Amino acid sequence: MSTQNSKGTALVTGASAGIGATYAERLARRGYDLILVARDAARLEALALRLRTQTGRTVDVLPADLGSAAGQDIVANRLVSDGAITLIVNNAGLGPNGPALSSAPTAYDAMLALNVAAVQRLTLTAAHVFAAKGAGTIINIASAVALLPERFNGPYVATKAFVLALTQALAAELSGKGVTFQAVLPGYTRTEIFERAGIDPSVLPQDMVMEVGDLVDAALSGLDQGELVTIPSLPDSADWQALEAARMKIAGNASRNKPAARFGVA
Asked: Is 156 in the active site?
């Protein structure tokens, strides 16, 4: 690990391109050494070489398929064994290809394994490690569609809602333990996810598609400002606060010993 102005080591999943690669570059420039995780070892090595040259940081490559239990084991074991890790970005994920019923039900198994099982495994592992030493940061990349289930592929929306809820729940559970959590909720972002889903991004309204560098810069600014949930394109944070206030009002009546009078069943 480099010692000059080091903030420890950041482990970034899905780091070979797009949001993950951009997080890696930005974090290296902030003084973090890096562990880059993805399936494509060649792309990881190329990125690692560039970042070492440009930033002078130590950059390790950890090829792993996080859609498999074996791949999750590889990364979880590194989180436990490497005491230099102070931050993790759970970015690896799969997007959908069309409406929910355009694919067979089993076609979503790989998405569930990567978007949910891997994120849960690595988030909980990192939370154990960071809570034990009283410091660490966990950044989970969710999606704005977690708040808009009517507008997108159902299974994908559900996976991102899981990521958001997991982050919020653990942040509450570990409050005061020195662990910082952030869920990032991007909208449309110009990355390879469009190609993989067979979507031409030029058909989307261009005022809805954010450049990946802008997304990551905004997300890191939100982290600096202490936001638990960051929506990079949201102009007024008061809108999120109002949503949270409404949710807490519902929470006060979510569990009672009698049905509400409006149902007429008491």
From this structure: yes
